[in-house]
Amino acid sequence: MESKPWRSREVVEGVHRGGQRALLKSAGLKKDDFSKPFIGVANSYNGMHAGHVHLNGLTELVCRGIEEAGGYPFEFGVIALCDGITQVHDGMHYVLPSREAIADSIEITVQAQRLDGIVLLGSCDKIIPGMLMALYRLNIPALLVTGGPMLPGKYKGESKAIYEVREAAGQLLAGKINEQEFEQIEQNVTNGPGSCSMMGTANTMAIVAEVLGATLPGCATAHAVAENKAYMARQSGRRVVEMVREDLKPTDILTAGAFQNALRVAMAIGGSTNSLLHIPAIAAEQGLRITPDDFEQVSRITPLIVKAKPSGRHTLWDVDQAGGVPTVLKELAPLLSMKEKTALGKTLAESVQGVENRNPEVIRPLANAYAAQGSLAILKGSLAPRGSVIKQSGVAVQMRKHTGPARVFESQEDAVEGMRVGKVHAGDVVVIRYEGPKGGPGMREMLTATAVLMGTGLGDKVALVTDGRFSGATHGPCVGHVSPEAAAGGPIAFVRDGDLISLDLDQRTLDLRVDAVELESRKQGWIPKPAKIRSGVLARYAALVTSADEGAVLRAPVPLGGEKEDGTNQLV
User: Does residue 341 lie in a domain region?
Assistant: First the structure.
């Protein structure tokens, strides 16, 4: 047997490893297979999950590509939760924590089995970030195959996305539509397997993955049922074997420049507020520290060139047909580091040669951008000393600057009930607290609350402020990730009904209009609320999770060797 510097040799070489070889033979391997690179295939198929229900077929194609290139594939399962399925019940507490579980389980499997390379298949909000965290943590030759968006739904001749049925629920409650029309919207808003057909978190992070060089070029917007998605899967299997032989690892592709590009692209495409949690968490695996200030700095100087649902009328199908990520990169080239590598080993400059913008109305040139600034704005002030985030690309002009009385709720459920019974009025600022990483625990999405506001006609008349987070489907004057959170004694814990709250997107401020003496008196004798959950994974998560402004990553129990006391290397 030829000896190669592959990790799998630790499993199959030598007389003393006869037991391992015997077990592998029982799993179907032949003697000749022991000389091949061992490639893991992390399949996050879930039969209850529209974004992942089709991944078995793509996994088969990945495995075929690995075999064609001379590798041996080992498929294993990875959990995958659907944010949409977990709305309006306790399941949402588990979604953000699942990101860490995904990364950890992949690390455990790959390290224990000494795999030489890996292909990871995932589509949706926490799965792609969790897989990227594992990919960079492991630093072995690796590729991600994103499952792709679903085709847009159609209702009365208009393209639809999933968030619109939630807003229709608000319209139904408000008596603006009847049950029959609601059922028709529900029936037609989705269209087959894939991630939700909008610029939500799933598609934002798929695009980020492609920009970082973790996927083959063109993979992010290739739709779930499209022929080129099948091609991407098979080619990814072939390419990862080549990467093993080339010893091309994530650290050879992933650089500070690649992360700068990812931030800029996320801002230019109208990306989700959840990128503020995920990009820093991924970067932390490579010792890079990305802060909300980095997002703010980049967003201020990055024009918005894509405005897809929920902020605009275009769908991800429109974006793909216009040329997808390669076209976005070409249009943004003057603002990017084009020397960064792709998964093919080429530079970005080389990879976009010959790329044509097939619809400049969907992916606009810099000279005709939708807006001079990117999608996200970081707001700071007396209510959010360490920052908060708003998707400014989805805010109506009249709500970019707003002052109104607080209507305070201790959970999303309380807020939704308050809206239902008429406690919220035009001009108010809805405050939903104790929904942060610790206080939730799990930092739930406030999608139900925002959808009810939109559906009842208050979406452009009421601001919403929370230490929780939002769905990528959220649009309107919704400020999330308020840090410090209420459970950590942040100012949001001391807001009372009727207090004036001011937000100003142009000045990037979020302030509680209560004088310092009064606020200090409210803090006297404050005792944190008892933990909502005291056992199981959520209790462990609440004990270890960091603040939203740090990416809501889990704190290491001991300092990492060589790490500075103030954190890892700063990105910018």
Answer: yes
Catalytic site includes residue 471: yes
How many beta carbons lie within 10 A of that of residue 8, not counting itself? 22
Q: Is 318 in the same domain as 452?
A: no
Q: What is the pLDDT of residue 161?
A: 84
Gap between the Cα atoms of 451 and 443, Å rounded: 18
Of 336, 351, 366, the position where a domain reaches its end is: 351
Low-confidence ranges of the chain (pLDDT < 70): 1-4, 473, 557-572
Asked whether residue 339 falls in the same domain as residue 471, the answer is no
> Which pair of structure tokens corresponds to residue 299?
């967003």
The one catalytic residue in 375, 388, 471, 547 is: 471
In this structure, the number of other CB atoms found within 10 A of the CB of residue 464 comes to: 27
Taking the C-alpha atoms of residue 173 and residue 167, their distance in angstroms, rounded to an integer, is: 10
Where is the domain boundary, 523, 542, 557? 523
C-alpha R_g of the chain = 24
Per-residue pLDDT, 572? 43
Same domain, 126 and 267: yes
Q: Are residues 406 and 341 in the same domain?
A: no
Question: In sequence order, which residues have a C-beta less than 8 Å from that of residue 314 and are 6 or more positions away?
Answer: 306, 307, 308, 362
* CA distance to 58, 99, 123, 305, 433, per residue, from 55 (Å): 5, 18, 9, 31, 37
pLDDT of residue 557: 63
User: Vertex 466, ends 462 and 472: CA angle to 5°?
Assistant: 85
| Count of structural domains, the chain | 2
pLDDT at 567: 46
**Cβ neighbours for 415, distance < 8 A, ≥ 6 positions apart:** 409, 424, 430, 432, 446, 449
Check whether residue 271 and residue 393 sit in a common domain.
Answer: no
Question: Are 136 and 273 contained in the same domain?
Answer: yes
Q: Report the share of the chain in percent with pLDDT over 70.
A: 96
pTM here is: 0.93
Residues 246 and 385 in one domain: no
Q: What is the pLDDT of residue 445?
A: 92
Residues 509, 208, 542: CA angle, nearest 5 degrees: 60
Query: Same domain for 404 and 346?
Result: no
> 313: domain CATH number?
3.40.50.2300
β-pairing verdict for 142-146 and 153-155: unpaired
Q: What is the DSSP letter of 304?
A: B
Query: Any idea of the CA torsion for 175, 444, 433, 546, to the nearest 10 degrees?
Result: -160
Q: How many other C-beta atoms lie within 10 A of the C-beta of residue 166?
A: 21
**Is residue 372 assigned to a domain?**
no
Torsion sign over Cα 228, 234, 239, 244: positive
Tell me whether residue 10 is in a domain.
no
Containing domain of residue 133, as a range?
A: 26-152+191-351
Provide the 3-class DSSP secondary structure of residue 17.
helix
